[in-house]
């Protein structure tokens, strides 16, 4: 009867003690922690070779030195040396072989030259905006390993199919709020041009940020483009959206209400405020900000109209374009004033969006420009992928979500409930 050996588990103190012991022994022996002859390289080599030996034992049915337990003709046939790239650099290992060549190791597969963690590291570096050449140079400098630019490209190309699945995955049935935002990316199309890429972000009934998808535009988008995008989102399961927050993109409000007839279209208050500063001199920013606050914190539309008149009277002579900006957006702004304060917080909470946009912008800025839309989309997807280990692009939105959820449930009675998804 085969003895079952229980796996050994160590608590944190035992792990810490073992690590300290290994480090102390390495120092005493004059061994570096990293590098070709370092402690980590040696441990990695030993672990990989031990795992491969265990795999071969399972394949043959007998352990080394137990030839009497053989049940067939196949047997061990020495080893072959192989160098694999790991997260700590190149490691040379001895891969055991069998006589008839039927052994197919799983821990380090035949013809495999990189462990999976290396691929993940390449994807992570790409998500941070490093080019293929920079990643190749990084591996050479940090790990002393040769990873060609073609290899880096092949690794990142692996996510293209994954990206397609992500872009068509089923979505939740109801989103209390969705945000539609634009990101400008430089793409070479004959010549380098600024091209908008649109990110649609939803807030789920569980208070999570859910990136619904990324679409490339050409700057001339209209109602037909937006109808196609929003219909695609609806076909993925989104039956209802309570509030859609966006800027005045041509044809977008009409497309929103066509796809979700009960949706409230709300201009992005934060963008409205920020765009105001574009028309004002820097020395007036504080004063303008103080005069704008009574408008968007007003208790109702009537009070906001009074505050808007006061703002216009004070600033129209100096900054007429700023006043016109608010007047033009007024119809899409005032629905904001009908919402409970908890809903207003969600609409005006920019941390979850701005942190995402900052990651996107950092990545595309580092790349400079992309050869085509597909390359830009791949980079943006890798950033999205890096935000959530599950690959779904989700994260917590707010801490006080329960208060907001109750406000949504009352304001949009019958459309919102914790069990909507």
TrEMBL record:
Coiled coil: none
NCBIfam families in alphabetical order: transpos_IS256
Lineage of producing organism: Bacteria, Bacillati, Actinomycetota, Actinomycetes, Micrococcales
Family listed: Belongs to the transposase mutator family.
Annotated InterPro entries: Transposase_mutator (IPR001207)
Protein name as catalogued: Mutator family transposase
Keyword Transcription regulation: no
Job description of the protein: Required for the transposition of the insertion element.
Organism: Isoptericola cucumis
Domain of life of the source: Bacteria
Keywords assigned: DNA recombination, DNA-binding, Transposable element, Transposition
